[in-house]
Design goal:
Blueprint (H helix, E strand, L loop, with lengths): L5 H10 L5 E5 L6 H10 L5 E5 L10 H16 L4 E6 L7 H14 L4 E7 L2 H11 L4 E5 L5 H8 L3 H7 L12 H21 L8 H13 L7 H6 L7 H13 L3 E4 L6 H5 L4 E4 L2 H5 L6 H6 L1 H18 L1 H4 L2 E8 L2 E9 L2 E8 L8 H9 L3 E6 L5 H4 L10
Helix pairs in contact: 1-2, 4-5, 9-11
Length: 396
């Protein structure tokens, strides 16, 4: 079975003496559970696995029950150590305080109980970790899969990666388009919205949340004002509501809106947003043409191509600690993606084989003096190479 790079990190930490809680974070269906299983099954340490998926959110004692079961197993079987694994822990209200208490009790009593926590709601995990568990944990962040990973694990071509995206669970379904779409829609979109957003947030208009996702995904890689979005929705509410929903969808790893780059923060926030999925499968879910026809449609393929590059950039943004914008002054003068980290700028222009050249990159360099400017595609770095690298490495 294919092993991602994070396998070696987690395996090494599990082989060490008990030191930190290991928190595996990432969107749904990127391989968090698979990674954990690969590691613990190749260790000589016994383990217990629990998931909070079907546990009532107010069952405060459930986490302690899991912990006590692991302690009891150690005691009865006279084990020198054990690994306790809890999946989707962020769904339990007050989870971080309970974890802190149990972890600190084990520390005080010298109980060598190692802990792995998994979760797909980034905002809920981050809040709990920051509130209660500082100094007690290490993160392992899983992004969506790169082109190199999909190629090596499933034999994907570049064109298949651009069209079908990077969900490993869907890779073997691409020969059956209807089945592939049902998997993306049900196992990823519905599961994320229903289990990660609606359960944890008070959403006044769930149907509007879904429409926001669908419209933003369909326009991935393109600018679309919130006012125009409202014009295509039923019971649209207001732009503030849509902005809030886009923030929730971004935290869940589905889709986001990018602001126009400007030195002035107010201008960034008041710009027309550019929409961007985190995985191009979500863009293709609303593509009007099948794979074979999409490749032949030069305009459509150019949009899918740019969206795939943007998805790759966004997928690594959280772990890489960089922000992403776009830049545009007038038609024909734009930069597709602007990455910002610790005062450094990286300007990226995406060129498919059919794109016209524009002066955006030249004007941006003159105006903002970026640390690096890069063309991805025709006349620059090959798309295969860019979609296989970590964009955070561009700042090195």
């Amino acid at each position: 079975m294919y092993k991602r790079d994070q396998y070696e990190i987690l395996a090494k930490r599990m082989a060490e003496k008990r030191r930190f809680i290991q928190v595996i974070m990432g969107p749904r269906q990127v391989g968090k559970s698979t990674l954990m299983k690969q590691v613990v099954k190749n260790q000589d340490i016994p383990y217990l696995f629990y998931t909070a998926d079907a546990v009532p959110v107010t069952n405060f004692g459930w986490i302690s029950d899991c912990w006590n079961a692991a302690r009891a197993k150690m005691k009865v079987e006279k084990l020198p150590e054990i690994i306790l694994i809890i999946d989707e822990i962020q769904k339990i209200v007050g989870w971080s305080e309970i974890v802190k208490k149990e972890w600190d009790d084990d520390t005080f009593n010298d109980i060598p109980l190692k802990v792995i926590l998994l979760g797909s709601s980034r905002a809920m995990l981050d809040k709990g970790l920051a509130d209660s568990l500082q100094g007690r944990f290490e993160r392992i962040i899983l992004s969506h899969w790169s082109f190199a990973e999909m190629r090596d694990a499933f034999g994907f071509s570049l064109e298949q990666f651009i069209y079908y995206g990077a969900y490993p669970g869907a890779a073997e379904l691409i020969e059956d388009p209807e089945r592939w779409r049902n998997y993306i829609s049900g196992s990823i979109v519905d599961a994320t919205i229903n289990k990660d957003i609606l359960v944890n947030e008070k959403i006044a208009k769930p149907a509007l949340l879904r429409q926001t996702f669908e419209l933003s995904s369909a326009y991935s890689g393109q600018e679309l004002s919130l006012t125009k979005m409202m014009g295509q929705m039923t019971d649209a509410g207001n732009t503030t509501t849509i902005t809030g929903y886009l923030n929730l969808l971004s935290q869940a790893g589905l889709v986001c809106s990018l602001n126009k780059y400007a030195v002035d923060m107010a201008r960034k926030k008041n710009s027309v947003p550019k929409h961007q999925v985190y995985n191009n499968a979500l863009r293709t879910l609303y593509c009007e043409k099948p794979f074979e026809d999409a490749i032949l449609d030069r305009k459509l393929w150019g949009r899918l191509y740019e969206s795939a590059v943007g998805a790759h950039i966004m997928s690594y943004a959280y772990a890489g600690e960089y922000k992403v914008y776009y830049w545009r002054t007038k038609p024909g003068c734009e930069v597709d993606y602007v990455l910002e980290k610790k005062g450094k700028l990286v300007a990226i222009e995406v060129k498919s084989n059919e794109d016209d050249w524009n002066d955006g990159l030249t004007e941006f360099k003159e105006a903002f003096k970026p640390y690096l400017s890069l063309i991805v595609g025709r006349g620059g770095m090959q798309a295969e190479d860019f979609l296989s690298m970590n964009p955070a490495d561009l700042f090195i």
